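Deliverable D5.2: sample structural annotation.
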Amino acid sequence: MNPQIDGRRTPCGERACSRLSAQHSHLPYWGRFAAQREQARSPRVFQCLAALVLLGLSSLTHAFDLQQLSDQLAKPDVIHGSFIQEKHLRALPQPLTSKGTFVLAKNHGLLWLLKTPLQQDYRITAKGIARRDANGWQMLPGKSAGAEQNRLFLAVLQGDSSGLQRDFELSLNGDAQNWKLTLLPRSMLLKQVFNQINITGGELVHSIELLETQGDSTLLRMQDSTSTQPLSDAEQHDFAE
């Protein structure tokens, strides 16, 4: 998915961007010989100013924006990896931890294969969320618990920030190898659920953290992700079924 996002937009309103700052140089103190030295020093002053201008233009040119992040995340055709998900509940002293593997395929969707504490397979596509049972894949109701969270994960992993921008204010910091994307909910409905969502990554997404209004939180860490392995026959069958 290739979102159309203006990377120059600011975090207020509907826009998100990386900020650039310029440092101001102090003018030199000429002393009582200023008149004699001004002509000799002026070329150096202009050289310094020119260098600062060129540095600023270079930084602006190479600023990492939302469009570049979206393109970067949407580039791989297939991503395989493992995950650890920690659900922190206020009522429990220790987080609820689940582990498994995932397969993200462009134009297909996401296979979310839970291994512990129980085994359960999910398939998340544009059509909705399906769960595998003894009779094959069964579609879950659109309002089922976790459905919106899983759709959010799919949008993030595929770089669909155009969809995210409809529901969240996006703010991006960092560069292509080390970035952080902050999502602040727009609608009253989302504000009732989330305070903030933090996403970090490099070439691929590394972690997704959901901070909920009631004090609970979820941290999802993506590990050993690789984009070099194509879909297996079984995975193609799972997406086609």
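Annotation notes: The longest strand covers residues 78-88. Residues 117 and 192 are 29 Å apart (CA to CA).
The annotation will be released with the project's public dataset once the embargo ends.
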